[in-house]
Amino acid sequence: MAGERPCPLLSVHPSRCLVDEKFEVLCQHLLPALQVTLHALLQTEDGDYWEAFGHYLSDAVGSVRVSEDASLGGSYSGVEPMGLLWSMRPVPGSKTGLRLRKKDVFKPTDVNISLYEGHLNEGFKDKHPLASVVAQRWYTAPEVQRVEVKEKGLKGTLFIPPGPGPFPAVLDLWGGGGGLVEYRSALLASRGYVSLSLQYIGLTGDDGKPCIVGNDYFEAAFSILKQHPQVCPDRVAMMGLSFGVSVTLGMAAYSSVIKPKCVVCVSGSHVMPVNGSLADVFDEIKKNVKNSRFDEEQRVIWRDLLLPIPDDSSKKVEMGRIKCPVLLIVGEDDQNWPTSESAEDMKQMMKQAGNSHLLTVLSYPETGHLIEPPYSPHIKASNFILHETRNKVVVLWGGHTVPHSRAQEDSWHKTLTFLEQHLYSNDRVASRSNL
């Protein structure tokens, strides 16, 4: 009928994109000055539900544009184009200690975005939305290849970008949680890098018993990556997170096989027995278990296990031996590792050795340990399985949601810039694969 107002329209653009890309959420055909709530909901591969929501007021023409309009409340406030993602948290009634991590990187994460009348804080499933739309978030660009790596006793996954290659490459080492974590490697491949995600903690031998790998394990992984026909052999980097930083720095400083073009270190330390193996590192940490602390919610704080930073040179990587560019990413509220103290000590060591020009430090206030790809939810604390006893504890990682989320976005884009600067030749622009 002539003069009738169209039905409310909710759109997201692009509706299909990589997880490190922004999207635009737009509401149209509303009454002017109407109170509405935008609600985002996703279900994880474990069946858990996470949500975020913002309160908005439509403008004079009945529209809400999330990239320009301020949320007046909800799980985030202010003008936050990606607040519907980074402020996500488990829905009320969920299990405690959850952490959102992607397992199958070849399946998208479907984010269901709905528009409701009024400023709501709960009961979304019992309300009928004015409009809904689905946004797909991917870790893999089209035609990225996944190859399991088992040769030389390794356990890892190789991700290869689309196109003829050869490409620069990254050896990707996660932290003390162990297991084979693939989503960062998949995203790196989507950005133009062959990436090998390597499991090195939590491995078992043929007898089913846990086994601790030696330096030759990492050297074999680096060699396989370097010799791959799709890899530029002189353009291979290492990237470590948490415990993986100790391995990365140790290999870069002392290995005669591993000669990375550059290294990226996220939320880690250089403190480790220089002439030891991973087993020696774990033994050193066990000696300091007495330094564990707990907050008022009985969440364990492990940052003191490596403090004070030792003066004994045999207990920390000799940073002066590193001859390649180093990017350190530090959360100043890291409650799991003494990353700020470690970064300051590394900086002084490199200054004294005359190689401080190789060091770039990105230090973020109110940022915790788990610095993930952009727009990932901030995880202040989560469950953690102790490898030896298989007991479960809740670990405090630290950080505050807004600054931590800013740090995740900023550090990821600066990481890509750093890798492009040091791994790609001057006459070639890094691949920016889009869906």
From TrEMBL:
GO terms for biological process: acyl-CoA metabolic process; fatty acid metabolic process. Residues 216-424 form the BAAT/Acyl-CoA thioester hydrolase C-terminal domain. GO terms for molecular function: fatty acyl-CoA hydrolase activity. Residues 20-151 form the Acyl-CoA thioester hydrolase/bile acid-CoA amino acid N-acetyltransferase domain. It holds the Pfam family BAAT_C. It comes from the Eukaryota. The active site is at S242, D334, H369. This is Acyl-CoA thioesterase 19.
